[in-house]
Amino acid sequence: MSLGIAIVGLPNVGKSTVFNALTGAQNAAVANYPFCTIQPNRAIVPLPDERLDQLAKLVKVPNVIHATVEFVDVAGLVKGASRGEGLGNQFLSQIRETAAILHIVRCFDDPNVVHVNALPSPRQDIEVINLELALADLQHLERKIERLQSAVKGDKKLAPVLEMCERLRDHLGRGLPASRFPEASDDKFLELNHELRLLTAKPMIYVANVDENCLSEANPYLLETRQVAAEQGVELVVLCAKLEQELQEMEPQERQEYLALAGIETSGLEQVIRKSFELLDLISFFTFNQNEARAWNAPRGVTAPKAAGIIHTDFERGFIRAEVIPFDVFVKFGSSAAVKAAGQMRLEGKEYIVQDGDVIYFRFNV
Asked: What angle do CA 186, 207, 74 make, to 5 degrees?
């Protein structure tokens, strides 16, 4: 399954450049004016996983299919977006459909690229976006409260939900995200969030878009962004979007040599993809047949039948058992036949919790 992650930020902070680098192609328009992006661009990006590549070599199959994450490049938000400024309502509704948010923060100076303010101010820029997300949630919640106030007259059981919504309204009204609502882990809130898909309840990563020099020595913009991220408990990735886009145009060997010369172990984009995956608390499990080795996304804690259903609903409906080999065990013995011969393959039933890296063959009957 593909998981949508919205790329957001003020206009001209590098969102579309990050998107183009993620796709490895010039799929999103890049221009030096606000609202260059009107309709959201979408890209399915494979999750790098050396384990899958190693598995494919061991089982000698021609095709390798990685797990994927979908990135959605949303047009730049501005102050007043929650009231429709800059087509804000349209853009905010696009974010609501995604599972997480990648917030690009401009941490570079460039007189040739206009900024909505005279100069970048990471703390202020972050506050503008986060406040608009909170205000959009507040408007959404107000409509829910109105419906509940009418419904509770005929069903007193709805009173606790209404009271929680009113407490959440006060919380959002202070410009605080729903993710920091004291009752965010309660079942009633989780049910409400499932219905409303609150923007500020979505997990978030800040991406500091810096110039190339700043990759080796932090500038004041980056230091300020780091401080804000630390205060809010938000993950931070540092990258140079322009450089990342150039890297995607290189051959793999040339790219690795360039990164080595720059003293960078992994590209910023690879960090973004991996942290996005971790942010959603996902695991990968593997399957293979004579034609392909494949990785699948699954929520952490998923049972074997539910994991089977990710591949095909018939697999879940007719689930019998799962033949499970942990990845390290598969590598140690080199093949499923050798694992079986060593008595290391496990037969697991409906209660089994799939682990990250499991190599699984599902038995089913429909």
From this structure: 80
* pTM confidence score: 0.79
CA 81 to CA 254: how far, in whole Å? 42
Contacts of 85-94 with CB under 8 Å at 24 or more apart are: 86/11, 86/34, 86/35, 87/35, 87/38, 88/132, 88/136, 89/136, 92/132, 92/133, 92/136, 92/199, 94/6, 94/40
- Phi, psi at 299, each rounded to 5°: -65, 140
Q: How far is CA 322 from the centre of its chain?
A: 29
Q: Which residues pair with 324 in a beta bridge?
A: 346, 360
- In the chain the beta strands, taken as DSSP E runs, fall at 4-8, 41-46, 63-65, 68-73, 100-106, 204-209, 235-239, 282-288, 292-299, 319-325, 346-348, 359-364
Structure token digits, residue 7: 């790329």
Q: Which residues of 329-360 are buried (b: 16+ CB within 10 A; e: fewer)?
A: bbeebeebeebeeeeebbebeeebebeebbbb
pLDDT top residue among 42 and 225: 225
Can you read off the two tokens belonging to residue 355?
Answer: 């682990």
Give CA 366 to chain center in angstroms: 35
pLDDT value, residue 176: 87
Give dist(CA 341, CA 355) in Å, integer. 22
CA distance 19 to 15: 6
Cα dihedral value 339, 344, 350, 351, nearest 10: -140
Stated as kind and residue range, the H or E segment containing 50 is: helix 50-59
**Which contiguous run of DSSP H or E holds residue 259?**
helix 252-261
How many percent of the chain have pLDDT more than 90? 53
- Reduce the DSSP state of residue 83 to 3 states and report it: helix
Residue type, 148: L
Per the structure block, which two tokens stand in for 100?
């997480």
